[in-house]
Design brief:
The structure is a single chain. This protein is mostly helical. The protein contains ten helices and four strands. The protein has a two-stranded antiparallel ribbon with strand order 1-2. Strands 3-4 form a two-stranded antiparallel sheet. The chain crosses the membrane at residues 23-42, 49-70, 76-96, 108-129, 159-181. It catalyses: a quinone + NADH + 5 H(+)(in) = a quinol + NAD(+) + 4 H(+)(out). Keywords: Cell membrane, Membrane, NAD, Quinone, Transmembrane, Transmembrane helix. InterPro entries: NADH_UbQ/plastoQ_OxRdtase_su6 (IPR001457), Nuo/plastoQ_OxRdtase_6_NuoJ (IPR042106).
């Protein structure tokens, strides 16, 4: 940024955006907008998280260019390096598919979201069209004692109430997300004793189900167990694994025999 001294008595020094900074803003700003659009348009949750990480890194570059070195480094280390990676680990562990996001839990939420987004965009465009952009002032005064002490003075002294209210809003948002994600249990959860009594009452599969690899040469989950008579137990292998093996091999799943069908229905 180019420091210019205003001419005249009692005029404070101000700064004006240079050509290089303007080019940097428009180039990185376009990349940040593309990353933000990728967050909401990506079909896979992992790709959406990566686009969000790109947007966070661009914001950190903006902070560093404007002289907020500590804020830029904290943006990369805390948000991109810790929080964003935690999101990616959770997505990789639970395996979220794109089909899950197509189910509406609230009726009309897409229409309301699109209408609200368009309304907010119109308000934002209208406000920016009536806004004047004067020269930047106060950055040198705020960083007289250093960037970190200056940032701490602004956050915890001058704007401490706004900082506390923002923290309270984040806590409320977290509690709201927990309430919305909570699923009401339709029926009472049965304990082990009740499940055992239910098996004896119906008379089907009173004993525990055979585990994979029992009396077999392998203990893998896709290897069926051997019954005492030497035959295979189809109940010991998950039906999901059976369908997955059929999809990988390209062959249709083998239909059960009469004995296997009778074993499944018992």
């Amino acid at each position: 940024m180019t420091n210019l001294l205003a001419l005249g008595v009692g005029t404070a020094p101000f700064t004006q955006t240079s050509t290089a900074e303007a080019i940097q803003f428009w180039v990185l700003g376009a990349i940040a907008v593309i990353g933000a659009l990728g967050v909401v348009t990506a079909k896979r949750a992992v790709h959406s998280a990566l686009f969000l990480a790109l947007t966070m890194i661009i914001l950190a570059v903006f902070y560093i260019v404007q002289g907020a070195m500590f804020l830029g480094v904290a943006q990369i280390v805390v948000y991109t390096g810790a929080v964003m990676m935690l999101f990616l680990f959770v997505l990789m562990l639970i395996g979220v598919e794109s089909s899950d996001s197509l189910v509406e839990t609230i009726r009309g939420q897409r229409v309301a979201g699109i209408a609200g987004g368009l309304g907010f965009g119109l308000l934002l465009v209208g406000g920016l069209s009536r806004t004047e952009f004067p020269a930047f002032v106060g950055l040198a005064d705020a960083n007289v004692t250093g960037n970190v002490p200056g940032l701490a003075e602004l956050l915890f002294i001058r704007y401490v109430w706004a900082f506390e209210l923002t923290g309270a809003l984040l806590i409320i948002a977290t509690i709201g997300a927990m309430v919305l994600a909570h699923r009401e249990q339709i029926e009472k959860r049965r304990n082990q004793r009740e499940q055992s009594e239910e098996r004896f009452r119906t008379g089907t599969h009173v004993t525990p189900m055979p585990s994979p690899g029992v009396f077999a040469r392998h203990n893998a989950v896709n290897v069926p167990a051997l019954l005492p008579d030497g035959s295979y137990s189809r109940l010991s292998v998950s039906k999901i694994l059976q369908r997955r093996e059929a999809e990988i091999s390209g062959l249709p799943p083998r239909p059960p025999t009469a004995e296997e069908h009778e074993e499944d229905t018992q």
